[in-house]
């Protein structure tokens, strides 16, 4: 049996693109149905970071996807609104939730000045033009409000999980201990780092791969190759049956930003 090569994890915290159009195309490539069915959700501890004391507030969940963080925020009593740059995601949100939803980008949210207590982004900030998105957040968040950034990241500290992430082309793997890049006037105020696990069958791991932006943009030849590589890794190298359960470790990391008053005009 041929053993896989184990590469080091990337130290990058954001994907790189040749131009803004390619960045927007990659970020909008996700399929709502596959994403919602297979991506893990977020713990209530993350949603409690939306306001300083955890009391209900007005929260806009940006790049909301299928509403996984939105639902956690609603569960804590926040008044939640949601937008996403993808028309497919917005349709899914409108059909599956009671949230007021619209299509917009982090760089141009369509919100009024100082309209919200918190602007949240889960699994999304790394797709944006960060200086522009930071300026827009400053415009729409009320004085004393928060910018909340959240990621669920496969824990690739184990070499076999790192190899799995590479086979699946999991482009949103953040290095352990990372901090996102956020522009002024925002300053880091709080951090939450925790762990969780997701139990999937072999078919479920394939569905997880299908939820990735790389798969969504790939042609059939590339998809066939990815399917073959993943089957070999799980069924031959790991010696799993299709009925076996596979435990995937995750890191959940949330970052609270508040305005740095010293950098405001």
Tell me what you see in this structure.
34% of the residues lie in helices and 25% in strands. It has 265 residues and is α/β, with parallel strands linked by helices. The protein contains 10 helices and 7 strands. The longest helix has 18 residues, at 220-237.
Question: What's the short version?
Answer:
This protein is of the alpha/beta class.
The main sheet comes to:
7 strands, mixed
Q: What are the low-pLDDT stretches, counting only 5+ consecutive residues below 50? A: 1-18, 22-27
How large is the count of helical segments? Answer: 10
- H/E element order: HHHEHEHEEHEHEHHHE
What spatial form do the alpha-carbon principal axes imply? globular
If you average the pLDDT, what whole number results? 88
User: From the helix content, strand content and strand pairing, which structural class follows?
Assistant: alpha/beta
Strand and helix map with partners:
Blueprint: H1 20-27, H2 32-38, H3 44-47, E1 58-62, H4 68-75, E2 79-84, H5 87-96, E3 100-103, E4 116-122, H6 130-140, E5 141-154, H7 159-167, E6 186-201, H8 202-210, H9 213-217, H10 220-237, E7 245-259
Parallel strand pairs: 1-2, 1-4, 2-3, 4-5
Antiparallel strand pairs: 5-7, 6-7
Helix pairs in contact: 2-8
């Amino acid at each position: 049996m041929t053993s896989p090569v184990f590469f080091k994890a990337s130290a990058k915290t954001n994907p790189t693109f040749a131009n803004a159009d390619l960045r927007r195309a990659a970020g909008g490539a996700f399929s709502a149905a596959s994403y919602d069915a297979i991506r893990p959700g977020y713990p209530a501890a993350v949603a409690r970071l939306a306001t300083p004391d955890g009391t209900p507030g007005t929260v806009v969940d940006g790049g909301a996807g299928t509403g996984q963080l939105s639902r956690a925020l609603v569960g804590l009593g926040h008044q939640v609104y949601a937008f996403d740059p993808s028309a497919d995601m917005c349709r899914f949100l409108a059909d599956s939730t009671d949230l007021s939803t619209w299509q917009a980008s982090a760089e141009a949210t369509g919100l009024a000045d100082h309209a919200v207590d918190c602007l949240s982004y889960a699994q999304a900030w790394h797709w944006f033009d960060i200086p522009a998105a930071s300026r827009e957040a400053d415009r729409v968040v009320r004085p004393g409000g928060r910018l909340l950034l959240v990621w669920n990241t496969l824990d690739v500290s184990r070499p076999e999980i790192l190899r799995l992430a590479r086979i699946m082309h999991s482009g949103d793997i953040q290095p352990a201990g990372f901090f996102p890049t956020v522009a002024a006037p925002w300053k880091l105020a709080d951090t939450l780092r925790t762990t969780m696990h997701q139990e999937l069958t072999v078919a479920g791991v394939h569905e997880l791969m299908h939820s990735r932006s790389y798969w969504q943009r790939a042609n059939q030849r590339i998809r066939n190759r990815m399917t073959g590589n993943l089957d070999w890794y799980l069924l031959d190298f790991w010696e799993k049956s299709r009925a076996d359960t596979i435990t995937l470790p995750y890191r959940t990391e949330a970052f609270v930003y508040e305005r740095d008053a010293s950098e405001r005009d």
